Amino acid sequence: MNTTSRRRIAFYSHDTQGLGHIRRNIALAAAMVAAEPRTDVLILTGAPQATSLPLPPNTEVITVPTVAKDSDGGYAAATFAMDLGSLLALRSDVITTALRAFRPDAVVVDKVARGLDGELEQGLEALREITGHTTGRRPRVVLGLRDILDDPLTAIREWRSAGTTEAITEHYDEVWVYGDRSVVDVAADYDLPDAVADRIRYTGYLAEGRSEGLVAPRDEPRRGPIPRPYVLCMVGGGQDGYDTALAFARATYPDGHTGVIVTGPYMQPSLRFRLQEIAAERSDLVIRGFVSTTIELIGGAEAVVSMGGYNTVCEVLTEDVPALIVPRVRPRQEQLVRAERLVALGLIDSTHPDLVAPSTLGDWLATAVTTPRPHRRGVIALDGLCRVPTVLAGLLRRPAPADDTQELAS
Questions:
Q1: Residue 344 burial (C-beta neighbours within 10 Å; 0-12, 13-18, 19+)
Q2: Whether the Cβ atoms of residue 154 and residue 134 lie closer than 8 Å to each other
Q3: Model pTM?
């Protein structure tokens, strides 16, 4: 590798619901830039809110036209009056043009190997025809998977239906699992063939160091300090966490504690307004909408009630704060499975969303703030952000496959 050149890393995430994919990619980008400052990062995403999140140095974001997911898991154009096929074709052209111009040395794709409904296939084919900016050979392509995909039967069916194995064997050099094999054995649980299993690398959870190396947007609003001590409720993007937030808003907090709810950017305004009305009626409740950096807020809490998304769980685990996870159970079981696995290891508490009530949360909070904080260090690997730069460097140094020269010459 020419050490005088700046390497280029591209990230893709389809982002149709919440901010989980883009937050994961930003954390990875920050770790890579911190390990090698001569790194330029291009993030391709379907989440326009990405431009309001703290970013690492040397990082730019390109947002493609947005797609929305309905309650049944179907997709449609979120803004434009376009049919889904036309919108995906537009997104595909934008992604492909960006990859051709940027000429990345490596591309990290989040979760969906072919992109949303195949929108990445054109870009993957383009990567076979270009040379990386620094390496001078075909860009290395990585599929990044969170720890839990879904319940095994659903995940296996969707994996096969999407042709994911074929996409991996044709286009991908490695599969990074952002988790610990003691929590989930991806190859075994999801019945993956050897051709995929041989490419899998477990990085550990992307937990420790999540807020490092990020620069907050200049226009981020300044807010007054939250009275301490406080207990915290987080409902992810907010599109389906209102019932949990409402129960928390009506709960009794431990003596002397303030309750804090982060509604997320996607909660319906009318529902957020209802929470604000409740807060106006009591002196011990604070409502926040969009918070660009949540880990400090989690770390300062005495206890956290949260949905079970990957990023929030990572932040809870690394901050050693007592946590009650209320997982999303529809249309996917991913959060439920994650919660069950972590409960089995004694790392969190969990309750089904159908059982959430003000009394349930109040009782749990009263116990949590009087119980010694959990010690999670060493139970599972939480240092994935420290490991990923080394894994990436090894991938870029690896001798080129025999067909690289043939691909570029064809």
A1: exposed
A2: no
A3: 0.92
